[in-house]
Amino acid sequence: MRNPLPDLKKTDADSILHPSTNANDFAKTGPRVMKSGQGVYLHDIEGNKLIDSVAGLWCVNVGYGRKELADAMHAAATEMGYYHTFTGMSNVPQITLAERLLSIAPANMSKVFFASGGSDGNDSLMKIVWYYHNLIGKPEKRKIISRWQAYHGTSIATASLTGLPSFHRDFNLPIEGVIHTESPDYFRHAHDGESELNFSKRRAAELEASVLEHGPETIGAFIAEPVMGAGGVITPPEGYFSEIQKVTRKYDILFIADEVVCGYGRLGRWWGSDVYGIEPDMINTAKALTSGYFPFSASFITEKIWDVIKQGSAKYGSFAHGYTYSGHPVGAAVAMANLSIIENEKLVERSAKHGAYFHQKLQETVGTESFVGEIRGQGMLAAVQLMQEASTKTFFNPNTKIAPLVTAECYNNGLIARPLPSVDSVAFSPPLVASKAEIDQIVDIFNHSVRKVMAAQ
Ligand SMILES: Cc1ncc(COP(=O)(O)O)c(C=O)c1O
C-alpha cells in the first residue's frame, strides 16, 4: 500500500496559501500536519506526540478533544444548523449566550455584537466608532489611534491597526486615518534609569502630543490589548493604563479594549481590563470564547453607544452592518458549553494559580541565565526574552532568527512553543486546563532546548 503521509504534505504544499507563513521557506519544508488532540497534547500525522504550550493560537483554553463541545455542536447542528440574525431574526443559542455574556462582561457593557473572529470584531467596532461620531454630529472625529507592536487582526482595517511593519509592507497599509503611538514595551524602550511609572507618563505625554498634533476633534478612538500578544507578550508597565486613560478621557476619545487573547481567563481574571483598571467603551473578544472550536467573536458596547445606534436607525433605517454568520447558532451553542467548562472547572482561578506557578518555574529554571533578558506575562501568558548577553542588554543580530531556532528545537523535543521573531522572544499560553505536571514538562523541554541552541551560538 502507498504511504499516504508524503502525499498529504505534498498536496498541502502544492495547494494551500498558508496564513502568516514564509512562502519561500515553506516550499522547502512543507507543513507539520496535526491529526488529533487531547487535553494539552497533539499528535501529528507522523506519530509524534507534542505538548502544546500555546493552545493553538492562544485560544484552546479548555484543551483539545472536549466531548462537551462536540456534543453541543452536534445538538445545535441537528436542531437547526443555521439561521441568520439580520432584519431582526434570531435563534435561541445566540439569545441565551448574549444574556450569559452580559452577566460576566464588565458592568458598563450593555449590548453584544456577534461575528466570526477577532478581525471581524475589531472591524465592526471601528465602523461603530465612525457611525457613532457621525450620528452625534462629530463626523471629523474618525481617526483611530493604535500602538506600535499591537496586533488587532489582518483585514484591511485591522491590519492597519496592527502595529507590526510586516503586516503593512507591500499591502498598501495602513489605511488613512489610523495612527500609531509608541508601544508600552518598557524593556525595549525605557531610558536608562527611567522608572516604570515615569515611562508610562512619558508614553501618555507622547499620546497627548500626537492627539494635539492631529487635532483632538479628529480622534475617534484608541485601541489596545490589555497585554500585547503577538507583538511580544508586553505587559503594561506600572501606571500605564491609568495615565493613558487620563488622555483618552480628557479628549473624549473612545477606548476599545481588544481582549481577543486576554479575555475569558487567560490572565487569571475574566478580563484583562479588570487586571489593569481599564474602563473601556467597547470590548472585542473571540478565540477563547469557543476555545477555538468554532470561529466566533463577541464585541461589547456601552449603553451610551447603543443609544446613539438606536437614534441612527430612527434617522437612517437599519444598522447596515453584519455578517452571514453573526450569531451563528452552532457557534453560540459551543460558546455556552465552553463557558460552562470554564465555570465548572474554575479555569479562571486555575489560570491565576497555575500561571503563578508557571512563571515561578520559568524564573527558577532560566531566569538568571545570561541569555534571558526578562520573563514577562500575566497568568497563563508568558514570554521569555532571549538575549545575546543580558548583563549588557545586547540583543541578537536579527539575522540569527533566534526565536524560531529555539522553537524548532522545542518542536524536535515534543514541545510546541511560539516564536515572536520581531522581539526575539518565545511565547507560551498553555491551555488553562494544564496540570502542574504538564507545566513542568513544558518548562523542562523548553529549558534543555533553549540551552542547546544557545550553546551553539
Ligand atoms: C489581540 C488580537 N486581536 C485580534 C486578533 C485577530 O483575530 P482573528 O485572527 O480571529 O481575526 C488577534 C489574533 O491573534 C489578536 O491576538
Concise account of the structure shown:
This protein is of the alpha/beta class and 457 residues long.
| Largest pleated sheet | 7 strands, mixed
Outline: globular
Give the radius of gyration: 22 Å
At the fourth level of CATH, the homologous superfamily of the largest domain is: Type I PLP-dependent aspartate aminotransferase-like (Major domain)
CATH topology category name of the largest domain: Aspartate Aminotransferase, domain 2
**Which second-level CATH architecture of the largest domain applies?**
3-Layer(aba) Sandwich
Helix/strand class: alpha/beta
CATH class of the largest domain: Alpha Beta
Give the amount of beta strand, in percent.
15-25%
Mean pLDDT: 97
Outline the low-pLDDT stretches. none
Count of helix runs: 16
Q: Measure the end-to-end span.
A: 44 Å
Bound ligands, named by name, code or SMILES: pyridoxal-5'-phosphate
Helix content: 40-55%
Number of domains: 2
Secondary structure blueprint with pairings:
Elements: H1 4-15, H2 23-29, E1 34-38, E2 41-44, E3 49-52, H3 55-58, H4 67-79, H5 92-104, E4 109-115, H6 118-135, E5 143-147, H7 156-161, E6 178-181, H8 186-189, H9 196-214, E7 219-224, H10 240-250, E8 254-258, H11 272-276, E9 282-285, E10 297-302, H12 303-316, H13 329-344, H14 347-366, E11 372-378, E12 381-386, H15 402-412, E13 415-416, E14 418-420, E15 425-428, H16 436-455
Parallel strand pairs: 3-13, 5-6, 5-7, 7-8, 8-9
Antiparallel strand pairs: 1-2, 2-3, 4-10, 9-10, 11-12, 12-15, 14-15
Helix pairs in contact: 4-13, 5-13, 6-12, 9-10, 14-16, 15-16
This protein binds pyridoxal-5'-phosphate (PLP).
